[in-house]
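Reading a protein record of the kind used here takes only a little practice. To see the layout at work, look at the sequence and tokens printed below.
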Amino acid sequence: MKKNSHGADLYDLEKKYHWSPDDILDFSSNINPLGPSPKALAFLREHVGAASRYPDPEYRKLKAAIADYVHARPEAIVLGSGTSQLIQAYIAHIHPKRALLNSPCYSEYERELDKVGAEIVEYKLDYRENFKIDVDRIIETIRTEDIELYVLTNPNNPTGSILTRVDIERILEETSASILVDETYIEFTDRGVYSAASLATQRDDLFVVRGTSKFFASPGIRLGYGIAKNPDILHALSDNLSMWGINIFAEMMGRVMFSDEAYKAKTYRLVQDEKEKMCAGLEAIDALKVFPSYGNFVLVKIRDRSRTAAELRHALLEKKMVIRDCTNFKNLDERFFRFCLLSEAANDALLKEIRRVFDDAR
């Protein structure tokens, strides 16, 4: 099975090229370029002495902050050390015989399904249809293939395609499958239309997971959370979390970051503005096909044979810029690459270098 990493290994690049990680423009990891919430960092600095005590084993304040953010009861929230732990625990608990995945998608779903011996059916997203997810075909596939669990990222990584909350509810209503929705990138789009969080508080057959790595730019604190109505799911997953499994720094930052309204608004505006600019700039290059995206990243196909994604990545690496070569995603080939949105200046620099590479290829 192909293994997808979480973007560039900055530590490997540091060792190989003797670069400082701070000097690398990492367009591969999909992390908010603004960094963590200023309010959360300030709160952490003011209370760093709390490292000398254990966290609240019930995480009451953290769960209350998350519950307020997602408009749910604190009892509907389960915590994890990143979304990966929650995904692993949920799949192990459900233990499906047959599961459905979009293709391409994040590889860890397949890895966890393999662990429980699930037979995996792939719904192949077609680049000729801009990787759109056809709800009618999903429903038909779940019915004809006897699917017990449908796992998806929404928006999907790496394609940027998306389902609405209404779409997800329809799939649940018209099939007998459970759905695991990974909303890692949901904050980069309109949560009111696309998030299934509110639906997860109403149905026993839906589990929604989110993290703080991407939008809140805090992968180092390893904080994820899930939203569910089903008490069996909540209890089973909570039992998998060791006492004090969320460290005190993650607990403190999490209590504050979700309520930093200025930070959230600034991030959303930056990503939307820069995505529009970058897509327009890249679409003007004849050799490139740019796919619409609801995330903070964009998937691009090299139309001709002038360059492969690996060759483009190598050319950009000479400028200390790192994009994602998507060759090792299923259902993509050596002509697909993905980049995320960074600062305005960094994005301008990337666009300039990509133009130069394809101008040189003529």
